[in-house]
Amino acid sequence: MIHLFGSASNPETSALPLPEVVVELGRLFVDAGHELSLVGGPVRDLFLGRVSPDLDFTTDADPDATIAVIRKWCDNFWEIGRAFGTIGLRKGEHTIEITTYRAEAYDPDSRKPVVAFGKSLEDDLFRRDFTMNAMALRLPSLELVDPYGGVKDLHAGVVRTPGEPSASFSDDPLRMMRAARFASQLNVTVADEVAAAMTDMAERIEIISAERVRDELTKLINGKDPRTGIDLLVDTGLADYVLPEVSALKLEIDEHHRHKDVYQHSLTVLSQACELETDDDGAVPAPDFVLRFAALMHDVGKPATRRFEPSGAVSFRHHEVVGAKLVAKRMKKLRFDNDTIKAVARLVELHMRFYGYGEAGWTDSAVRRYVNDAGPLLERLHRLTRSDVTTRNRRKAERLAFAYDDLEQRIADLQEQEQMNAVRPDLDGQQIMALLGIKPGPVVGRAYKFLLEERLENGPQEREIAEQKLRTWWAEQPEAAGDSTKTPDTTDAASSKGLS
């Protein structure tokens, strides 16, 4: 590990660690007659007192020349990004990307960047998204190159572009999303001219692929302060194209104050959910995208379900069901994977289930169903439900917290007694077929579902009791009167064992 020493004007950058492989690679390129600089995020992170997990370099060497330099030095390399001037490689524990100086822009009608190689480091830095990422360290000398004031802006906590924001966002509209992501990740603000350009050019985000938008949104949600990032997307109009369901919540502000501000409530729930995440050894390690996104989106069904009752009250009946469908639809458009979509939508669908527990009380059966319906999402559901309490009425907040404490304790007690983490019927599929003398098919599934309902309703039962209930159920089924689904030999075998 090498330590980078700062200048007198920036003493706080002294003694920052830098992997030795950085300077070693720089010497290889200089010895071959080329330039090489560490650039972008890794340099920014040095000023933030941390080492970036990825190392990005830029050079005047073209891809062929780069391969010639690193071929014998690296452990392996790949050329997937060759068309964009990028060669990837692996050296020990380090993943490295080396990109030829370039200028990059988007055709107004295309999703794909038009790549042209550049001639100088300064020109390469000018094309980068923000000044804090437009810094480089020349290698192997470790000379800081900061032509656009990145260090100053980073220390001030301001997101600026090297040139005109409109030109930068025209080159790559995804940079508008990235500005909001940095606001979330780094606790920085966006310069007024940057926010203005984001507002004027928000529609341009539509030329960016859903996958790239999804990746930036995920990083934003998983940042230190996702509330700030989401607020910026909404205020600039970007959310109208990326998350219109969230923008619609802002339209729910009620000038007559008959119900709370759903938009601000949703942001508060998001912040509170972040606070309830755990460390790496806990039940919901931070950052947890599924919990956070469900917290943000949990009330998106309200605009479509708002009704003014004769009494003057406002209702949102079944908004959780409508919201779950809207969430799934939006996430599919953003190309999220099916497991993540199902998890977030399920949490949104279940987030109202708890309400009423404190007043009416729940039977053990209702508690079992709550746990069974949540499945592996139970710990997240606990946190989402608690986060959903944003009332300023201290007594109401304390009452709801006490009720949920009681519910969690009942769940823990039942889990200890019944192993509820894996609720299954008292008979499995093979036992059902043997008892009823039937072949595999839909009837077995119906029988299994019947026994699962019995298990949820009454808890675990002795096998003999479960068998008797299954026989009673079977006697009422139309298949029991015929022989189309029966296997006589199996039935006889079951009879000989005293199971029928």
What this model shows, in words?
The chain is elongated, with a radius of gyration of 30 Å. The longest helix has 25 residues, at 394-418. Mean pLDDT is 86; it is low at 5-15 and 483-500. The protein is α+β, with helices and mostly antiparallel strands. The chain has 25 helices and 15 strands.
Number of helices: 25
The neighbouring-strand order within the major sheet is 5-6-7-4-3-10-11
Q: Summarize the biggest pleated sheet.
A: 7 strands, mixed
Query: Shape, please?
Result: elongated
Please tell me how large the radius of gyration is. 30 Å
Beta-strand percentage range: 5-15%
Q: What is the number of beta strands?
A: 15
Broad structural category: alpha+beta
Helix content: 40-55%
Overall pLDDT level: 86
Structural key phrases:
single chain, 500 residues, alpha+beta, seven-stranded mixed beta sheet, two-stranded antiparallel sheet, 51% helix, elongated, disordered C terminus
Give the gist of this structure.
This protein is an alpha+beta fold. The protein contains 25 helices and 15 strands.
